[in-house]
Amino acid sequence: MVIPFLGGEKKAKTGVEVIEWANMSPTDIVWKWPNDRIRLGSVVVVRAGQAAVFLRDGKIMGVLEEGRHVLTTANFPWLTDLLEAVPGVGKMMDMFKAEIYFVSLTEKRGTFGGKAYAGNRFPVKIRGDYRYKVEDPETFLRELAGASTDIDSTFVTNYLVQTVMSRLQKFIGDLPPNDFTETMQVQNKAKAFLTTQFEQLGLKLIDLNLVLELSEEFEKLLPYLASAQSWDQLFRILQMQTLQQMAQSAGQNPAAGLGVGMGMGMVMPYMMAPGMTPAAAPGAPMMAGGGMVQQPAQQVKKCPNCGANVPADAKFCPYCGYKFG
Asked: For the chain, which residues make up each domain, given as ranges?
């Protein structure tokens, strides 16, 4: 007598329990056997493209590869650590408690999209897709078990999207300015970076397609990026370029110099991130009519997201985009 039971089948009490993931779909990543009370002598069927991982209290006890496996301590000595003694008798029970997760080892595809900040200053929209597969199910389940006690394919999908986005946001934020002159160079470096990150999760990154959409302010800087190996250096280049253009324009038409300064000033606030020195800090002396005057100190407030000092009346942080309530 065979009783249908979700992902596998369960024999009658007089027979042998068969534990398997029989209805895995191409998009499924992980599936948990519903019963955590397992009888010795049960058969675990691991199909092609699968692995079965045994967990107890969040600890990996064993991993079964493709094949038909009879659960005995002779076949799997680690099962001994899962057995419990019968109270008052001292004899070991023929049942043990464990969670069995089946993991798909076939290739999967994920998508992502969101916003990052180049140099932690300039907004950059990122989107794309990636192909991957589970290469080390033990490491994979260990990482997931540390993140949640309710693991299923939906959780894993969301977990990976959030992981990819957070890693790419850090990657984009740490890139030097001159890397943004070559889109393919950014994608190749991003793939190498994510490959290492995926390996730590027990995954193999097969391919990555990354699309960058630069903000208007960032695009204005493209002519200067190639010669800047750091954001501090880019800031100094922009300062020098602005002063040169203002001097040249002022020599031809005093009013034109103001126009150039205002144009470059559109991107200058993004360069004044924490740790960088702006051209003139609030309250610093400035030239006026051939003499030095004291600039009134500007009222500022601290952004709770990135810690930068911004004008007190600002509605958005110019460094990270945080919206003040």
From this structure: 2-104, 108-218, 299-325
